[in-house]
Task: structure prediction
Amino acid sequence: MEGYGPARRRRSVIRRKEMPLWQELPLLLVVAFCLAVLIRTFLVQAFYIPSGSMQKTLEIQDRVLVNKVVYDMRDPLRGEIVVFRGTEDWAPEVTEAVSNTFVAKLGRTVGDLVGVSRPGERDFIKRVIGLPGDKVACCDDQGRITVNGVGIDEPYIAEGFNSDLNQPPIAGQCTSRRFNEVTVPEGQMFVMGDHRSVSQDARCQGPVPIENIIGRAFVIVWPSDRFTGLDVPDVWKQFAQNQPTAAHAGPVPQPKADPVGATGVLPLLLTVVLSARSGMSFVTRRRRLRA
Result:
């Protein structure tokens, strides 16, 4: 009979398979949540700043996004801000007792996804100052740190946030700006906080293995009035250009755009949700995030 051909039967089957919105919405929320977990685990993670060791660059209670894949493709660069796991020699910054009940763990997991949970007791955020083979010391005749004998003008250190130039070095403490020359061991990095008078960093706790890096902090996302990128300062870019083989066997890598940025996560979530709503298969439409 006319009007009951194969095309019409296919349209009828498709209409019968569609779910009402009240059934589909919870499914979409579950898909979005699972995708958020995957992104947090492998690509981008939000971190809460618990201390003032990176002021004025990062204030207490700032939230930053951390790229977790960039160092799978290249080495860290001097001047970058990185989140890493401290060694046993590093004193934990978070010392409060933490509940291990199921509800508490669930709350921390959910909070971690949106960047409001407390960091782990051995998770730190600092700036990379020296790479393997670099000789780092303080200070030159202008009170600056030196890397391979070159004094570094650090524009991110606010007035009054540097450590005391006149206090003599004390073993195990970072209260003095002065410290003896350190040659960064192979496979490690020398990191320091921007608020030198309060930061406990590699000056007194030692270098950190590069393999301990969790990721690179690349943007402040909260509070909204502090939204800004965390780029490598020009002074470090210029330094790298003048140090072609100082600490590396090959050419020094130059700063590149991160493969995953703040603008790439939310559109991906939106694409998945819209694809599911319209009946399109995400599996057949997915795009690779890494080449």
